[in-house]
Design goal:
The protein is of the alpha+beta class. It is built from eight helices and 15 strands. The protein folds into three domains: about 70 residues, 2,3-Dihydroxybiphenyl 1,2-Dioxygenase, domain 1 (Roll), CATH 3.10.180.10; about 60 residues, 2,3-Dihydroxybiphenyl 1,2-Dioxygenase, domain 1 (Roll); about 130 residues, Phenol Hydroxylase P2 Protein, CATH 3.90.56. The protein has a four-stranded mixed β-sheet, covered by helices on one side. Strand 3 and strand 4 form a beta hairpin. Helix 4 packs across helix 5. The N and C termini lie far apart (about 60 Å). Its cofactor is Fe(2+). It comes from Burkholderia aenigmatica. Keywords: Aromatic hydrocarbons catabolism, Dioxygenase, Iron, Metal-binding, Oxidoreductase. GO terms for molecular function: dioxygenase activity; ferrous iron binding.
Length: about 290
């Protein structure tokens, strides 16, 4: 038995069904300029009710392709139709560019070809433009601002471990999973075991030591009521015997980054978290 750990070499293709053959081909090949590189045409295979079909591929960079199935003489099921719902929009394809100039060039190409831009948004470490194809499938072109590193991987593990713990309790009937705050609080507890536990007399915020969250740390350093330690094990620790308060505009955070401000974990009560103000009070303060 070969004990070598297998390694994936990237995405070869993603595939989705379409009932708009011409519109799909003209959108990807002509409007986006993605080369049509392969097409399979076949009689139905597998199950007896499988229709004849086309399976065609457009090249999308670095050996990857985006592919579609067109099932001949079939009606589109309602469950495959695009709907304005976050669950449908969650399934999407994201392509990478290397520079901001390339991102803007793609935005200009969409506009020149009459493709509506849904929005342009800065996340934590990526900036993206979003649009949709004739089938209603969400598409994204994204620029990664910095490489992902070991801090990102460790923080991701802490996040998913806390979330899976909450999900396990929910499935076991021993707890509920109602809010992301549960994940953030559990993360803070885990980080606090190595960074110094909090007895509840202070509001505590942990901030991952990465550039996008740096304004939280710098703002706190300038406030005499806050105490800032670290970074230890990849996190800054911000403490206050009173409330920890941030203003989104003062930080210069875009909404997507603002909504993730507590991602490092916190210990306390979230008194306010709206579009512009975040306030965390000590856990012992009701």
């Amino acid at each position: 038995m070969n004990s070598t750990q297998p390694v994936l070499k990237g995405v070869h293709h993603t595939a989705r069904p379409t009932w708009k053959l011409r519109e799909t081909v003209e959108f990807y090949r002509d409007k986006l300029g993605l080369p049509l590189v392969h097409a399979i045409s076949a009689r139905g295979w597998g199950p007896a009710n499988h229709p004849d079909f086309l399976h065609f591929f457009f090249e999308s960079g670095k050996g990857s392709t985006i592919a579609f199935f067109y099932y001949i003489d079939t009606e589109q099921p309602d469950y495959t139709r695009a709907v304005a719902d976050y669950r449908f929009e969650a399934t999407h394809t994201a392509w990478a560019v290397d520079t901001y100039e390339e991102l803007i060039a793609w935005r200009d190409r969409l506009e020149a070809n009459g493709i509506p831009l849904i929005y342009q948004i800065r996340h934590e470490l990526i900036e993206s433009i979003y649009f949709s194809d004739p089938n209603g499938y969400y598409l994204e072109i994204t620029l990664q601002q910095r490489p992902m590193n070991l801090l990102d991987a460790d923080d991701a593990k802490r996040t998913l471990d806390a979330a899976m713990k909450a999900e396990d309790a929910m499935f076991a009937g021993t707890g509920e999973f109602k809010s992301i705050d549960q994940v953030w609080r559990d993360k803070a507890h885990g980080i606090g075991e190595s960074n110094g536990e909090n007895d509840g007399s202070e509001a505590v915020l942990y901030v991952l030591d990465v550039p996008e969250f740096e304004p939280l740390v710098e703002s706190s350093k300038s406030n005499p009521r806050y105490h800032v330690d670290g970074p230890t094990n990849g996190y800054w620790k911000i403490c206050s015997p009173d409330a920890i308060v941030f203003d989104r505009k003062a930080l210069g955070f875009v909404p997507a980054l603002w909504n993730a401000s507590l991602t490092g974990g916190f210990d306390g009560n979230v008194k306010t978290f709206d579009r512009y103000t975040l306030e965390i009070t000590p856990r012992g303060e009701q």
